[in-house]
Specification:
single chain; alpha/beta; Rossmann fold; 3 domains; six-stranded parallel beta sheet
Length: about 550
């Protein structure tokens, strides 16, 4: 054992766990840890953010696109509360993020004396949006607690965790036994369930695979694609599942999002639906809702998800990649379905016509994005009109290349999440799709991007409004507008003031994007647009 401070024990443990970067904001309760980061600069990178919310958003973007643990560090109280939105996003999207929070001194814990940054029972804030919370009160316990936190975050269904250390524990010294990281345990596989699923799906005439974000999280894209081709089964994905199968694959029919997408055209024909890694929160009472006679098979690593939102004929608990690989072994030669590639192509073409009829401007922008971006480029889908339509219309060609905020729909997350994605994938193009309302959340991180040389491209669509809500006021509330108009700066000029590149362009974004991708610094592309119709306020036309 060696004598070390709590800060040294914490940072040394992060290094041993393979953590390469921490996104954080210094503060009085963290200085013992910051000094330890100084000693380990060659092993772990510290990136200072300008808002604690950005710290967890960056950790989320990093983790979502790399599959590795994302780590953020903040002070307690206001810092930790700011960071909660990013943890909630990671929880919704089943992504492993570790929040390291400082804490008031051990002598002040639970006494409600008004110590600096104190929040009584702070962990209660995080319990609904994490898998686990912990507090360390002794230096010697830091390595084991950190290792346990990492294991919890990454095992089974990955999700965020929170660990807090009082400032005096970070400063104190003690004998510490460093721990070597061990393998992450994974749940067993229901082999009998897999065999039963294989029998049912092999006998189906019109099987459909419904792939959710769990396939991407489990790195099961190769197995999913192989199974689809073995069965000759079309694949529908959720927005989080984009990239689970390349969307230029002939068996990929695309994403179902609100009322748009292929599911409404092919789900009624399915006799068996194999859902993998999806919550299956589907509309009820529509012509394309799942029916009891369609033989729903649901595979999920989280047993609580199986049957939660849809009644299942067969539920299988297991990691998506392992379950898909086992299915491949069990189905044999497959290829018995009655689907024809020509009818699947007709479905894809029909979906495109539906989008083009309702959202021609958005589709033209999305087409330009796909044309200019590399196949493995990362697109972070913000909470804005063009990004909503990208869920349906932007073809994703590689796994871990499309980032959403899942059901949390986190306004303002996209730009900082894109910065985290770029830190984790420095050789890949990274583009954030932002609205003017959402981008204003993260404007200070332009300074972070320039300071840290994080060359992300932010497309900022400017309609000087909270567009979806303003459109809703027009559509349902007689154009009684209140609270949805925005006053904005010139985002391109603002970017230049920070030292980034600023470009203004019309909806023909191709040349501007090409210029931006060639830059060696962060770029903001400002795209003025009128307020447009979002997909969840539109009805697909009969085309």
């Amino acid at each position: 054992m060696a004598v070390m401070s709590g800060g040294e024990a914490l940072v040394g443990s992060l290094v041993r766990e393979g953590v390469e970067v921490v996104f954080g904001l210094p503060g009085v309760q963290l200085m013992g840890a910051l000094d330890a980061f100084y000693q380990h600069q060659d092993e772990v990178r510290w990136i200072t953010v300008r808002n604690e919310q950005s710290a967890t958003y960056m950790a989320y973007g990093y983790a979502r696109t790399t599959g590795r643990l994302g780590v953020a560090m903040v002070v307690p109280g206001p810092g930790a509360l700011n960071a909660a939105a990013g943890l909630g996003t990671a929880y919704a999207a089943s992504t492993p993020v570790l929040l390291l929070s400082g804490q008031v001194g051990t002598g002040d814990l639970g006494r409600h004396r008004g110590a600096l940054h104190e929040v009584g029972e702070q962990m209660d804030v995080f319990r609904p949006i994490t898998k686990a919370c912990s507090r360390v009160l002794r230096v010697r316990d830091i390595p084991a607690t950190l290792h346990s936190s990492v294991c919890v975050a990454r095992s089974g269904r990955p999700r965020p965790v929170e660990m807090e250390v009082p400032w005096d524990v970070l400063d104190a010294e003690a004998e510490v036994e460093p721990l070597k990281p061990g393998p992450i345990s994974q749940p067993g596989l229901d082999v009998a369930g897999v065999r039963a699923a294989a029998r049912r799906i092999s006998a189906a005439r019109h099987p459909i695979i419904w792939a959710g974000g769990g396939v991407v999280t489990a790195d099961g894209s190769a197995e999913l694609t192989a199974l689809a081709h073995r069965l000759n089964a079309p694949v529908v994905t959720t927005q989080q599942g984009k990239g689970a199968i390349a969307e230029d694959d002939p068996l990929s029919v695309g994403v179902f999002y609100t009322n748009f997408g292929p599911a409404r055209h092919i789900l009624p024909q399915a006799d068996v639906v194999l859902a993998v890694g999806s919550r299956l929160l589907l509309p009820q009472g529509t012509p394309w809702a799942l029916r009891d006679d369609q033989g729903l098979i649901q595979i999920d690593v989280d047993p609580e998800e199986v049957g939660r939102n849809q009644p299942v004929q067969l539920g299988v608990v297991g990691d998506a990649r392992r379950a898909l690989a086992a299915l491949l072994d069990e189905v044999g030669d497959g290829g018995k379905s009655a689907w024809h590639l020509q009818e699947l192509e007709k479905v894809r073409a029909r979906v495109r016509r539906e989008v083009e009829a309702v959202a021609p401007t958005q589709l033209a922008i999305i087409d330009a994005l796909r044309q200019e971006l590399a196949p493995d480029a990362v697109v972070v889908q913000g909470v804005t009109n063009v990004a909503y339509w990208a869920n349906v219309a932007f073809p994703v060609l590689r796994p871990r290349s499309y980032v959403t905020s899942s059901y949390f729909a986190s306004l303002g997350y996209s730009f900082p999440a894109a910065l985290g994605a770029k830190v984790g994938n420095p050789q890949r193009q990274v583009v954030a799709l932002c609205g003017d309302g959402g981008f204003m959340y993260g404007v200070p991180e332009l300074a972070t991007a320039v300071q840290e040389n994080i060359n992300v491209v932010a497309l900022v669509f400017v309609d000087n409004a909270l567009g979806a809500y303003r459109h809703d006021q027009q559509r349902r509330f007689g154009s009684r507008f209140l609270g949805t108009r925005l006053h904005n700066p010139s985002f391109a000029r603002l970017a230049e003031e920070f030292g980034a590149r600023g470009i203004v362009t019309g909806p023909e974004v191709g040349s501007a994007l090409r210029e931006a991708l060639a830059c060696k610094r962060p770029v903001v592309i400002e795209v003025p647009l009128p307020t447009l119709t979002p997909p969840f306020q539109a009805t697909p036309p009969d085309v």
